[in-house]
Predict the 3D structure of the following.
Amino acid sequence: MSKKFGVLTIHGMGNQRPDYANALQQNLYQKLSAETIADLSFKSIWYHGDFQVHQDKVWENMTRSGNPLDQQRLRKFFLNFLSDAATSEFRPDEEDSSYRRIQRVILRQLNALRVELEDEDRPVVIMAHSLGCQIISNYIWDAQHGKGIWQEQQPTEFQQLRTARLMLSSGCNIPLFVSGLEKIVAISKPNDLFRWYNFYDRDDILGWPLKPLSKGFPNAYDEIVTEDREIDTGWTPLSHSDYWEDDSFIKPAAKLIQELYGRL
């Protein structure tokens, strides 16, 4: 039996496991109706596999170098986090780059989701955290403009995420990647029903509102992002890791998904 809609998750920075979305799925399912869950296909994009082996090797080399390093726990945290961000953006035009490998991971999960949904026009909900917001934005941008892995092939409408109806971003750090640009342009809305809700905690130094990024033209963030919602996931910078387990995010996210299902 085919599903009526899909939820596609993508994780953020740090040492992520393949089952990173299990807690999120369980938390959401506690808030959704049984009927909604039965009609939902849940897929997770795990792109971190390429990164951690290399990061661990660099850390081992650095700590064995004979040069004493203070604040090792904090250093390792930033090594993993900042390396993820830098590596994910590196050499986007090269076929075997991490950038393109990540895009192909997204595509594989999209294709798997398409099989379960059966129809090309089934709605999709995107749930992105931290660096995952920038990565899925890159994927959509490239699919819309023939960039990245789409330079020599044409995506289907589903692969282009033209049926995306909700984007629920949390701890989003897109501003860190675009702040040096003269004109900051967002993705185009995949369709007229698309809504983008961005959740952030003011104590999270890696999570930002998005609407102030740009204003005054059709693809400005103020036009594409439906709403920035400030929530409270904690009172320290460590709140960056807590969105998907905190009711201040889970409750409104589940409500938005439930409302979407009611319109199908």
Summary: The beta strands are 5-10, 40-45, 124-129, 164-170, 195-200, 227-230.
